[in-house]
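Archive entry: two folds, one per protein. Generate the first.
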Amino acid sequence: MRVKVDLKKCTKSGECYYNHPTLFKVDSEGFPVVQFDPLEDEDLEIEAQQASEVCPVEAITLEGD
């Protein structure tokens, strides 16, 4: 599974990196950066799913299974 962040949609709310700091970090401009690509750990996949669900602008998408 891969996690994609659409930086054009992202409003830098921080929901992803505040709630899932293992999976995301914040860059110098305030955008989220995915730490693992691809995700091969079930716990990280769960975190990615949760992050995509709480993103207020739906900027996080998941690809693959």
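Generate the second and append.
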Amino acid sequence: MRDSRYLVVFGACLTQFTVIGVLFSYGLFFKSFETEFGWSRTLLSTASSLAFFMMGTLAMVGGRLNDRFGPRRVLGITGVLYGLGFALISQVTAPWQLFAIFATFLGLGLGTHDVVTLGTIARWFERRRGMMSGVIKVGTAAGQIAMPPIAALLIVWLGWQNALVVIGLTASVLLLVAALAMRSPPEPAPGQSSLGLGDSFATVRRTPVFWRLCAIQFLFFPSMMSVPLHLPVHGQDLGMTGATAATLLSIMGFSSIAGRLSVGALVDRIGGRNAFVICFAFLIAALASLAVITSHWLLFSVVAIYGFGHGGLFTVVSPTVAAYFGMRAHGAIFGAILFFGTLGGTIGPILVGMAFDNLGTYQPAFIGLAIAATLGLGLVLSLPAPRPVAQPAG
């Protein structure tokens, strides 16, 4: 039983590492697409936004499928398709082809990687959901650290098209291995577990707390999706080389490890609401600073601050959902909240790209993201304390 749990941890971490590491490397191909096809950053951002939209839509489905069929089959199929989709980007010659790949292949992988891994971990680790969610999201941070520099080197050594093929096919293999390590926990004996306790999705969607959590997710997700996507090219605009700009994502990944582990432990001790407040404080401070700084060394410092809040926010949601609503319909509830987040994540990168294309600077975009995050913090402060999960009658 214990060995199985930590094999699942390995599979979940590897899934997070691969899916997000590959996604973060996409921004390094912007200059190649601009040179090869003359495509704008609005267009390139729109492609990733389609994947984010599908991530939210499919997260609702993925959560239900995980509740019913378990993580191995769901992650195995979507993971292989995700890697193949990234490899197929090497063959695009028209914008519609890029959009189609992001909306299907990449959307499938993104739609299941979070809701399935974190939902499965929440079921395996009832007493340490916050901490173990943080551990799983360290896999994400490791991907952020490792993949962008590797992608930058592959572009130099192999050219952008061959680099996409190598990254994509490697991702398919890694995600299949990760899926084979995943499994649902065995059914507990009656009265020995709280996994079946909590509210149904039909009940939850009528509560104000659910809709506040949806709105909070909507307001911070634009930053989560926009900053990593545009950060490498923003660094290059400020005079950095491609390799140096890639290390911005690595710095963000290192600092997000601290955020994920710290916030994961804090959720178990001080609750999701208070942990949310800490995350938003880091996020808002960093976004406001990104709007005004041009110094390279200051940019690295601010990215480190951003990374802490970024990592924490990706950790806090799943255990907070469990605290408010229990585990009875966790996959469906978490997936629905992610859907609203990815609506914001869909809009954010497009608006950031449009702001740059029209104004030649990211400053207004960073200010707008800071305002959205401030509104999210206000909603967090309005959340009530979670009530105890209802015990079954009899």
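Annotation attached to the second fold: The chain is about 80% helix and 0% strand. Residues 38 and 198 are 53 Å apart (CA to CA).
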